[in-house]
Amino acid sequence: MSTETGRAGERSLFGHSLRRIILYVVLVGMGAFYLIPIETGVMTSIISPETYTGNFPYLPPLEPLVPGTGEFSLEPWQGAIDGLGQGLVNSVILVVPATILSGLLGSMAAFGLTTVDWRGQIGIYVLFVAGIFIPYQAVLVPLTQFWYNVVPLRELFEPLAALPLVEAYHWKLVALIITHTAYGLPICTLLFRAHYKKLSDEMVEAAQLDGASVATIYRRIILPLSIPMFAVVFIYQFTQIWNDLLFALTIVQFGDAAVVTQELVGIGVSQSGTNFPLRMAAALLAALPTLLVYIFFGDKFAKGVTA
After folding, report:
1. Contact status, residue 106 vs residue 125, Cβ threshold 8 Å
2. Best CA proximity match to 51, nearest among 75, 83, 79
3. DSSP of 200-256, one letter per residue?
4. How far apart are CA 108 and CA 101, in angstroms?
5. For residue 6, what pLDDT is reported?
6. Is 76:47 a contact under the CB 8 Å cutoff?
7. HSE on the CB side for 189, CA within 13 Å?
8. Is 304 helix (H, G, I), strand (E, B) or coil?
9. What's the farthest any 2 CA atoms get from each other in the chain?
10. Phi and psi for 64 in degrees, rounded to 5?
11. Are 65 and 148 within 8 A, CB to CB?
12. CA-based radius of gyration for the chain
């Protein structure tokens, strides 16, 4: 009896070990599947454009030791920094205030639609939900007419151009900030509203009995409890706004106010051909801010999604 029990235990232990091995193999395979394209991009970005052949893009530049792999060079990265420098600055000027405004205004709107009772609340909530389903392409022409013909933002911004660090073309970035804030407001509101629906009503009722105003309740109770959801909204909005190209092409078009996604379109392309190392270095450089955001705030994003 004890022998059979021992054999059953051995088979169970072997099966458990086999499952763990299979799981590790699957995870390693999935990791390699997703990381090989990134590794290929990194290797391509450090090859001299003059020696790039594209034969072995996944191998490091090892010429003359391995023919066809190219010579090591940081020239593509230097060219990417020079070509995308102004676009990176413009994107930072755009993304930071647009992300903060859309998150903060979405939190306030969700608080007003969840905790405070007032007439017409359901109708306003329906409008927020409908705003999520408006495609970008449907508003491009009205948006252009609005910023260039209806609202004289360029004329209003001219007196501010005399201030330090302010340029005349920054009015286009201000228009982009307002546009992305307005377009991101519905999804931010719904995310915060889902979070606020789970909060205890007793806290708000107790604060109201103590005579706290709506602004005090939001500032001292709701806002501190919203930090995990702010992490989710900020990361989501940062990624969406940083990677946007359609609104930038519509409002900014081209020129000194071009953002990084616009600068990325034409970099490394000329009549003589395509400079693949330069384009790959530029693509990695443009994606670096969003990658850093996920690395440094990924744990808060996970906690916010869980909450």
Report:
1. no
2. 75
3. -HHHHHHHHHTT--HHHHIIIIIHHHTHHHHHHHHHHHHHHHHT--HHHHHHT-SST
4. 11
5. 54
6. yes
7. 23
8. helix
9. 93
10. -85, 5
11. no
12. 26
> How far apart (Å, rounded) are the C-alpha atoms in residues 79 and 149?
38
Structure token digits, residue 279: 């384009």
In eight-state DSSP terms, residue 70 is: -
Q: Which residue has the tokens 């059979």?
A: 4
Helix (H) / strand (E) element for 274: namely strand 273-274
Give the start-end residues of each E strand in 72-209.
Answer: none
Which position has the token pair 């392309």?
A: 269
Question: What torsion do the CA atoms of 41, 44, 46, 50 make, to the nearest 10 degrees?
Answer: -160
Q: Give tens-digit pLDDT for 127-141.
A: 888 888 888 888 888
Residue type, 229: M
* Number of residues written out for the chain: 307
Q: How far is the C-alpha of 178 from the C-alpha of 302, rounded, in Å?
A: 28
- 3 pLDDT band, cuts 50/70/90, is low
**Which residues contact residue 137 at a Cβ distance below 8 angstroms, ignoring those fewer than 6 apart?**
246
Kindly tell me if the per-residue pLDDT of 17 is higher than 80. Answer: no
Tokens (6 digits) for 7: 């054999």
Report the Cα 299 to chain-centroid distance in Å: 16
Is it the case that residue 162 has pLDDT exceeding 70?
yes
Reported as a single tens digit per residue, the pLDDT across 264-275 is 988 888 777 889
* Burial zone of 199 (CB within 10 Å; 0-12 exposed, 13-18 middle, 19+ buried): middle
Backbone phi, psi, residue 116, to 5°: -100, 130
Q: Encoding tokens for residue 161?
A: 């151009």
Both tokens of 131, joined, read: 């705003």
CA distance 50 to 29: 34
Instruction: Count helices and strands (H / E) in the chain.
Output: 13, 2
